[in-house]
Amino acid sequence: MCLITFAYQQHDDYPLLLAANRDEFYARPTRALDYWPDQPSLLAGKDLQAGGTWMGVIARGPNTGRFAALTNIRQLPAPDIKAPSRGELVTKVLLTAQSIPECLKAIELRGHQYQGFNLVAGDASGIWYLSNRVPGVRALDPGVYSLSNGTLDEPWPKTTLAHQQLKDFMAEPSSVRDLALLLSSRSRAPDEALPRTGIALDWERALSAQWIDIPEYGTRAQTGFLVTAQGEAQLYEQTLLPGPGTPLPAGQQFRLPGFW
Q1: Residue 244 has pLDDT above 90, yes or no
Q2: pLDDT per position as a tens digit, 137-181
Q3: 3-255 — its CATH code?
Q4: What PANTHER family does the entry give (predicted)?
Q5: Backbone angles phi, psi at 156, to 5 degrees
Q6: What is the rounded CA–CA span in Å between residue 127 and residue 141?
Q7: What is the dihedral of CA 117, 43, 94, 162, to 10 degrees?
């Protein structure tokens, strides 16, 4: 993922609302949201190049109700191409027999091996945040949170907008599909508001929009995830074909009763 916004215990009918965009090179092979044949409890998209994922949930078995999502941290110097894929962190959290805090603490100990990441994971007992750019595993209080390719507390223009978009959605909740498509602004931030991550200015400008649409790289998937007060989860993903913003005819939607 490159942009996530979520509301935790901020709505009487929805203890969790989450919207996210995944931006990636169009040439990187990807499998759309579905159950994994070799891990039938895991519902997630899959990066077919490295084998990990950017977001997933456990919909069956002992860890039912667990979810995790990842964003990369954009920071020069150039990344170490020998570093392990950050996408494996999501599956580690989802598939382990450890509690989420225990697993995140174990990941923190070897976090230096990875390129920069943010990892959000939760279940019915709480939500936690870990980054290898700030110390400690953080238990999140109820609230609205947004993050992109900086750390959780960095207010980038696209995350500030996402914060407000989710609050507006909570005022008049609609479908999980509408939640998935929430982060669709193509507006770019003015130069004076851009984060300074070390990349070229033209790239910084292009990546400041929520919806990325540039040659060879762009928004590849949009995801909506909600949990109702009755404990049912709904997960929706709109997958975009390689090329600038070409959607598949219909998104994938899953209803998960007894999730929380």
Answers
A1: no
A2: 999 999 999 999 999 989 999 999 999 999 999 999 999 999 999
A3: 3.60.60.10
A4: SER/THR-RICH PROTEIN T10 IN DGCR REGION, TRANSPORT AND GOLGI ORGANIZATION PROTEIN 2 HOMOLOG
A5: -85, 155
A6: 8
A7: 40
Residue linked to tokens 């993903």: 237
In degrees and rounded to multiples of 5, residue 61 shows phi and psi of 85, -165
Is the pLDDT at 245 greater than 60? The verdict is: no
**Is residue 248's pLDDT more than 80?**
no
Kindly tell me the burial class for residue 178, based on how many C-beta atoms sit within 10 Å of its own C-beta (0-12, 13-18, 19 or more): middle
Distance CA 228, CA 122 (A): 15
Do 1 and 55 contact (CB within 8 A), yes or no?
yes
Q: Whole-angstrom Cα distance, residue 177 to residue 144?
A: 20
Whole-model pTM: value is 0.95
